[in-house]
Design a protein that fits this description.
Blueprint (H helix, E strand, L loop, with lengths): L5 E2 L2 E2 L3 E2 L5 E3 L8 E7 L10 H6 L9 H6 L8 E3 L5 E3 L5 E3 L6 E2 L2 E2 L5 E7 L8 H17 L4 E4 H4 L13 H6 L7
Parallel strand pairs: 3-7, 5-11, 5-12, 6-11
Antiparallel strand pairs: 1-2, 4-8, 6-7, 9-10
Bound molecules: zinc ion.
Amino acid sequence: MNDSVWQQGWWRNARHAFSPNYAPRAREEEVSLVVLHNISLPPFEYGTGAVEKLFTNQINPDEHPFFSVIHELRVSSHFLITREGEVVQFVSCDDTAYHAGVSSFQGREKCNAFSVGIELEGCDFEPFAEAQYQALQPLLTDLIRHYPIGAITGHQDIAPDRKTDPGHFFDWARLQAAGFPVVR
Ligand SMILES: [Zn+2]
């Protein structure tokens, strides 16, 4: 069945790049939420490989002024979808990644505990690539089949005072039209 695409929380259709920035998911916790983000490193540059370096603690602070600001961050996401539609997975969905920070969804705080994070390579100021939607939808389909996910939301929706991603260029209506449970 569909479970064959999952192995201990790792999705077979992704390239795997292990991040040390995670914690075991609490035993009583279930994955009930997907949080969508955007990210680009350096800001507004694509295809640099720096996002993957950030999530695997390999940022070189000397390479770019911005990197000296962020190189000691210990953050991660379960998935990154590049502009070309490649899916990279950093943390098992059975574990907690560090993507949401201070956050609240329907009155529940600390969304990392019960969510999966998906970063779309991009920014708040331009549309995402068609290849990214083409990659996102099968990932969401497999996540929803495997985990009791009731909602897909944005980082900006669970941390509105701090975050603006994935931003207004993200096509939520497209996900809704495809039958995904968008809740914002
Ligand atoms: Zn975010």
